[in-house]
């Protein structure tokens, strides 16, 4: 237990013959530490992440359904506009002698206004989907990070007794003091 305690306080070289110790070679231990942390994150965060993703999927599907309803409404408006266009074209035939150019301008304006409305609805749908996707990704990232941090803090708190905790804090304060002296 003393070797474990001292390894948190002192980061010096440990002789490998005859005693148990920690390998302080950063290049050799970082992949091991990362794999352990990733394993713990995957093990503990898998269920929560699945629930979050399922909830997010339902929200996205709901947003898609709403967008589809908006799309259907836009198609209905387009059909109404086409009916109106047909009506305008029939009136154009009647008024061709009196002012063909006036009717043609109204037809073009009607088509342009309808096209513009459809483009706006399509853009709104795409922006909404993109926004919801980004928000879902950010929420999942934040929740996974918070859960990983809480798990790590819980693990640290359960592993550290008060003496070891005091030694670790003292060692870190010493390291920060040394770094401050170097920068001065």
Automatic annotation (TrEMBL):
Keywords: ATP synthesis, CF(0), Chloroplast, Coiled coil, Hydrogen ion transport, Ion transport, Membrane, Plastid, Thylakoid, Transmembrane, Transmembrane helix, Transport. It is a single-pass membrane protein. Belongs to the ATPase B chain family. F(1)F(0) ATP synthase produces ATP from ADP in the presence of a proton or sodium gradient. F-type ATPases consist of two structural domains, F(1) containing the extramembraneous catalytic core and F(0) containing the membrane proton channel, linked together by a central stalk and a peripheral stalk. During catalysis, ATP synthesis in the catalytic domain of F(1) is coupled via a rotary mechanism of the central stalk subunits to proton translocation. GO terms for cellular component: proton-transporting ATP synthase complex. The gene is atpF. It is found in: Membrane. GO terms for molecular function: proton transmembrane transporter activity. The chain crosses the membrane at residues 32-49. HAMAP family: ATP_synth_b_bprime. It comes from the Eukaryota. This is ATP synthase CF0 B subunit. InterPro entries: ATP_synth_b/b'su_bac/chlpt. GO terms for biological process: proton motive force-driven ATP synthesis. Pfam families: ATP-synt_B. Its main location: membrane. Residues 64-98 form a coiled coil.
């Amino acid at each position: 237990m003393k070797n474990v305690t001292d390894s948190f306080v002192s980061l010096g070289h440990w002789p490998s013959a005859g005693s148990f110790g920690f390998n302080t070679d950063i290049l050799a231990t970082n992949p091991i530490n990362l794999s352990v942390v990733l394993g713990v994150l995957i093990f503990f965060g898998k269920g929560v992440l699945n629930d979050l993703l399922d909830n997010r999927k339902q929200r996205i599907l709901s947003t898609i359904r709403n967008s589809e309803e908006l799309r259907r409404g836009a198609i209905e408006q387009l059909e109404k506009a086409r009916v109106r266009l047909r009506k305008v074209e029939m009136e154009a035939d009647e008024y061709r002698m009196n002012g063909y150019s006036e009717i043609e301008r109204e037809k073009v304006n009607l088509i342009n206004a309808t096209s513009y409305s459809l483009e706006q609805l399509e853009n709104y749908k795409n922006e909404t989907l993109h926004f919801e996707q980004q928000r879902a990704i950010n929420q999942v990232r934040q929740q996974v990070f918070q859960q990983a941090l809480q798990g790590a803090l819980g693990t640290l708190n359960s592993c550290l007794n008060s003496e070891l905790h005091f030694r670790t804090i003292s060692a870190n304060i010493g390291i920060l003091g040394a770094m401050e002296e170097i920068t001065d």
